[in-house]
Design brief:
By secondary structure, the protein is of the alpha/beta class. It is built from 7 helices and 11 strands. The model is unreliable at 1-28 (pLDDT under 50). The chain has helices spanning 2-15, 90-95, 97-105, 134-149, 164-175, 220-233, 254-263; strands at residues 48-52, 60-66, 77-81, 109-113, 157-162, 182-186, 205-209, 215-216, 218-219, 238-242, 285-286. Strands 1-2-4-3-5-6-7-10-11 form a 9-stranded mixed beta sheet, with helices on both faces. Strands 8-9 form a two-stranded antiparallel sheet. The chain is globular and about 45 Å long. 28% of the residues lie in helices and 17% in strands. α1 (2-15) packs across α4.
Length: 287
């Protein structure tokens, strides 16, 4: 599996080329993910804490969930960014234990980076909408090493996170649109004017907030609506799920979130949801 799947993708990484896809309107070729290069020595991909050492930023521990299925299947790669003051153990709660098991069963990998002690008052450098891209440089290295060491489905690289992690996921959508397929910020939204890495990739977004009381320093309802309007103005498929319970992870939506990510690999345009959300999605989600 590793040689058969990995070599074409790795070649594209090494020379900075795009990896062809078949997604797009009417089945025609859509935008192609452009994968970052490996810059350091890649660790082995094993369940537990793994250290990545990109060339330009400090080494960082990353909690990884990966099963033996990844040795024979090329599955998705899911980033999870925890809330401010939380830790990597938030990931199974935010993703859902059943969904985490399903990801691993497909040969997929879930990664939850630890925060950088040098990030300031918040766990992620881009929490306030501007700053160093160190966390995303780390993400680039994880992507590149996942291709080199394991072989992944390069059209199924997604990001999600809560609060500060939701804001970081929102930034990652714009700033890493070369390869991000779709995103799910829990209480995230648009802060500042993040640069768009790849305008051709109209990545879909499922945006959650907890209503008017979803406020910690900023109002996440307002920032989610700002992001909704910005993405729609750019031609992205996006919608809001207002769970109305304040600043919380909507655990009842775990199955819908995983379905959304599964249904939106890189370059999916138009969305299969353009005429309505799937049956079984939370009633508080609306187009």
């Amino acid at each position: 599996k590793r040689q058969a799947v990995r070599r074409p993708a790795l070649q594209a990484v090494q020379v900075g080329l795009a990896v062809p896809t078949t997604a797009g309107t009417g089945g025609s070729p859509g935008p192609e993910p452009i994968l970052p290069p490996v810059t350091g020595t890649c660790p082995e991909f094993v369940e537990g804490s793994v250290t990545f050492a990109p060339a330009s930023v400090a080494s960082r521990a990353v909690q990884m969930w990966v099963g033996p299925e990844a040795a024979t299947q090329s599955g998705p790669l899911i980033f999870y960014w925890h809330g401010n003051g939380s830790n990597v153990n938030e990931a199974p709660y935010g993703i859902g234990t059943s969904q985490l098991a399903a990801i691993k069963a497909q040969g997929g990998i879930v990664v939850a980076p630890t925060s950088d002690p040098g990030s300031g008052n918040f766990d992620w450098h881009l929490t306030i909408g501007s700053g160093a891209e160190d966390d995303l440089v780390l993400a680039d290295e994880i992507v590149a090493c996942a291709v080199e060491k394991m072989g992944i489905d390069v059209r199924r690289i997604h990001s999600m996170g809560m609060s500060a992690g939701g804001l970081n996921t929102s930034q990652m959508g714009y700033r890493r649109s070369n390869y991000i397929a779709s995103i799910v910020p829990y209480s995230g939204g648009k802060l500042g004017n993040p640069p768009v890495q790849n305008e051709a990739n109209k990545f879909p977004a499922m945006l959650f907030h907890g209503g008017p009381s979803d406020e910690v320093l900023i109002n996440f309802k307002d920032k989610s609506e700002d992001m909704l309007n910005d993405l729609r103005g750019r031609g992205h498929f996006t919608f809001i799920c207002d769970h109305g319970t304040g600043h919380k992870i909507p655990t009842d939506a775990a199955a819908a979130v995983w379905q959304f990510l599964s249904d939106h690999p890189f370059g999916t345009d138009p969305s299969p949801y353009q005429n309505g959300l799937p049956q079984g999605f939370p009633a508080y989600c609306a187009l």
